[in-house]
Backbone:
């Protein structure tokens, strides 16, 4: 789309380049979404092949991140963008980092799925894991949709969702702990399950980050002076959140 | 000249003459004519003013009256105005009907322009794809439908007719997306809900996979006991022959089950990633070795390696393609015949050819030999120990490598099976 925010350039090439950048990010997002879907399905179906495929394919996402990063640097150097364009590029650089980490988490889930699949006994709380997985998939999907539509309301809704995901994660952890105490032989398996839940919860956080970048991108343009503090705070929060996690 | 113009000219001429005459009585004929001309000019201006007002605001019916040439002009404009209005009404109705019918269409339709931006879409597309009314026009479709399969198809449709993707808005729903280019730089994206078909396919595939899997365990037990019986010295001689036949048949059955399992795996249809290099020379050599291990085989099995290029894909699958083609060729070629395995690369891509001088295939059978269990000549083929699934496996494995199978054959002279791999499946080092 020739979004209003950057359709005003005299250089039509610059427009096209920014559009291309956006499409590339969303393409990467699509790949990450697919990996996440496959990883969650591998857990639910107990399909070790599927899980290994995700963990082996992670390099594709990494490759895209490097390419997009390169493209951003080129745009910064050659076009010297300002205002909304600069914000878009900064946002893209941040978004791809988050997407790449989602890819890593998905790969981790895929790997754990191949572990768990070898267990003949099925974990009783798979339905909870499935619910958490679907919830997180939806969050990531909505965050990317919000980015492609530049829709602040949708982005804010994603940020709200993250609280629910955290609660679901807590529940699964508690359940796992009590099951482990009941029968110590299952500790190994439930450790894996906890790791999967943890990875899903992290993906939720990354989706939230992306949604926050969307708010920053759009708000920074619309309500430049009044909302600036809030936007900076949001940014700061996102940054500290990420540095706490890594 | 129409009569009304003649009359008007005569009248205006008369009025001017009368003005000049009255002026002449006062000794100023030019002034008199000028005054009359001025009056006529104002009269025309007035009529023009009424015409303008009428066109700008008036209803068609409220036709201004006038004299001279004006009434016919007014009448003609009224006629045109009425016609335009009626036509507009008709077009509006036509458009409304057309829109209503596209809205009623059960399949989703999205019109895309040259850069894949959404121009318009119908109700079904909105529901199936979860589009939003206010903001999604002008959005690039791949920004909203981000499935890698779909994006590949969009950028490079090739000869694929459609791709199946999960619906972004409704869980458990599958959509077949088809691109139909039309007009200058416009494309219609047709979306159909195929959840039912996808579900049935999955059920069938799961059934075949599960059934073959379940068949394997009892078969292993039977084979174990048969092996024990064959080695048992207490069994009377008359039973040796039947036991051997049973062993052969159970081996055949195990091969069948294995082929079925492999086929059900291959059928899942996704394209194999291009990240692994497969050594073509090695798989050809392996296939040749396997062919020599068969009980009956022609003396001459030759490999012609015309290119150092390798393939990108899954080694086990490509191995089974070559092995199946070679063992097929060997099975139908007499001992003094010849089987040639050829690998060439040209501008179009790589070509893997297995040529034999065997019995050949009749024209009417060529299109059907890749069907499961299809026998060009039932009895003979079964004697030769095939499972009837080999070529089906070849076809599906090739499809997963974006390759195509071409069969050339003449009855009694031999057959040639060629696998055409596209260029981007080649590893040219």
Residues:
């Amino acid at each position: 789309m020739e979004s209003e925010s950057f359709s005003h350039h005299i250089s039509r090439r610059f427009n096209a380049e920014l559009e291309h950048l956006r499409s590339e990010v969303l393409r990467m997002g699509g790949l990450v979404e697919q990996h996440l879907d496959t990883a969650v399905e591998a857990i639910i179906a107990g399909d070790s092949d599927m899980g290994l495929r995700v963990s082996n394919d992670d390099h594709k996402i990494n490759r895209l991140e490097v390419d997009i990063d390169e493209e951003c640097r080129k745009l910064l150097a050659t076009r010297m963008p300002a205002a909304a364009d600069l914000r878009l590029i900064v946002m893209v650089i941040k978004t791809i980092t988050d997407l790449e980490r989602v890819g890593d988490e998905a790969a981790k889930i895929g790997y754990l799925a191949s572990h768990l699949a070898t267990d003949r006994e099925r974990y009783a709380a798979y339905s909870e894991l499935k619910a958490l997985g679907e919830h997180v998939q939806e969050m990531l999907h909505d965050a990317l949709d919000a980015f492609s539509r530049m829709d602040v309301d949708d982005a804010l809704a994603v940020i709200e969702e993250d609280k629910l995901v955290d609660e679901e994660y807590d529940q699964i952890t508690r359940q796992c702990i009590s099951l482990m105490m009941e029968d110590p032989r299952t500790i190994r398996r439930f450790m894996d399950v906890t790791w999967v839940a943890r990875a899903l919860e992290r993906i939720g956080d990354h989706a939230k980050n992306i949604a926050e970048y969307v708010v920053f991108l759009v708000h920074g343009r619309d309500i430049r002076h009044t909302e600036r503090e809030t936007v900076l705070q949001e940014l700061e929060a996102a940054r500290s959140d990420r540095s706490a996690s890594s | 000249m129409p009569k009304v113009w003649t009359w008007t000219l005569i009248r205006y001429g008369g009025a001017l003459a009368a003005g000049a005459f009255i002026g002449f009585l006062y000794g100023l004929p030019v002034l008199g004519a000028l005054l009359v001309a001025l009056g006529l000019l104002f009269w025309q201006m007035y009529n023009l003013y009424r015409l303008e007002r009428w066109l700008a605001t008036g209803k068609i019916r409220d036709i201004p009256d006038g004299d001279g040439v004006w009434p016919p002009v007014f009448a003609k404009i009224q006629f045109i105005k009425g016609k335009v209005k009626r036509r507009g009404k008709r077009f509006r109705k036509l458009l409304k009907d057309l829109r209503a019918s596209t809205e009623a269409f059960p399949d989703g339709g999205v019109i895309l322009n040259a850069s894949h931006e959404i121009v318009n879409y119908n109700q079904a597309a909105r529901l199936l794809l979860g589009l939003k009314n206010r903001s999604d026009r002008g959005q690039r479709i791949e920004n909203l439908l981000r499935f890698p399969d779909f994006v590949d198809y969009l950028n490079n449709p090739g000869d694929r007719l459609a791709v199946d993707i999960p619906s972004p808005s409704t869980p458990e729903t599958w959509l077949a997306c088809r691109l139909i280019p039309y007009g200058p730089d416009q494309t219609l994206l047709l979306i159909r809900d195929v959840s039912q078909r996808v579900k049935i396919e999955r059920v069938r595939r799961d059934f075949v996979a599960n059934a073959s899997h379940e068949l394997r365990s009892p078969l292993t037990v039977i084979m174990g006991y048969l092996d024990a019986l064959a080695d048992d010295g207490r069994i009377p001689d008359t039973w040796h022959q039947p036991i051997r036949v049973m062993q052969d048949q159970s081996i055949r059955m195990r091969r069948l089950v294995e082929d079925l399992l492999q086929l059900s795996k291959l059928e899942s249809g996704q394209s194999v990633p291009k990240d692994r290099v497969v050594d073509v020379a090695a798989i050809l050599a392996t296939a040749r070795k396997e062919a020599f291990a068969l009980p009956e085989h022609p003396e001459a099995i030759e490999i012609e390696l015309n290119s150092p290029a390798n393939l990108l894909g899954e080694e086990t699958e490509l191995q089974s393609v070559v092995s199946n083609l070679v063992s097929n060729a060997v099975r139908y070629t007499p001992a003094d015949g010849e089987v040639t395995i050829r690998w060439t690369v040209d501008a179009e891509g790589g070509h893997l050819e297995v040529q034999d001088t065997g019995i050949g295939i009749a024209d009417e059978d060529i299109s059907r030999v890749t069907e499961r269990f299809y026998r060009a000549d039932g009895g003979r083929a079964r004697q030769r120990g095939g499972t009837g699934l080999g070529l089906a496996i070849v076809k599906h494995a090739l499809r997963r490598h974006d390759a195509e199978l071409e069969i050339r054959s003449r009855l009694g002279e031999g057959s040639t099976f060629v696998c055409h791999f596209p260029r981007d499946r080649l590893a040219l080092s």
About this structure: Residues 180 and 188 of chain A are 9 Å apart (CA to CA).
